[in-house]
């Protein structure tokens, strides 16, 4: 498969992924809003030392959540490209880089 076809497939898949990322289902938004509201209520009950620990907890949760999203995004993107390209070949040959 030539590089221009690979690029067209990559652009198409990126647009689809971005579309879904910008148009999340209400359940996703509601879940994050519920978590956010609970965190605000909890934060109001904490003393300074507990608040610092809670801030660390929130920061590490955001990192873990971001890494989880990135992992599934990357896995899904790779699967989509392999499917569109016929489940064959090594993407690293096409792009000239490691794709793992």
Explain this structure to me?
- By secondary structure, the protein is mainly alpha-helical.
- The chain has one domain.
- The chain contains four helices and no strands.
- It has helices at 3-22, 26-43, 48-84, 91-95.
- Helix 1 packs across helix 3.
- 0% of the residues are buried.
- The model has no long low-confidence stretch (mean pLDDT 80).
Distance linking N and C termini:
19 Å
By helix and strand content, what is the structural category?
Answer: mainly alpha
Mean of pLDDT: 80
Fraction of residues in helix: over 70%
Number of helices: 4
Computed over alpha carbons, the radius of gyration is 20 Å
| Oligomer description | single chain
Whole-number total of structural domains: 1
Sheet of most strands: none
Q: What are the segments in which pLDDT stays under 50 over at least 5 consecutive residues?
A: none
Q: Percent of residues in beta strands?
A: under 5%
DSSP strand tally: 0
Q: What pattern of helices and strands is seen along the backbone?
A: HHHH
Chain-wise SSE layout:
Blueprint (H helix, E strand, L loop, with lengths): L2 H20 L3 H18 L4 H37 L6 H5 L5
List keywords for this structure.
0% strand; 80% helix; 100 residues; mainly alpha
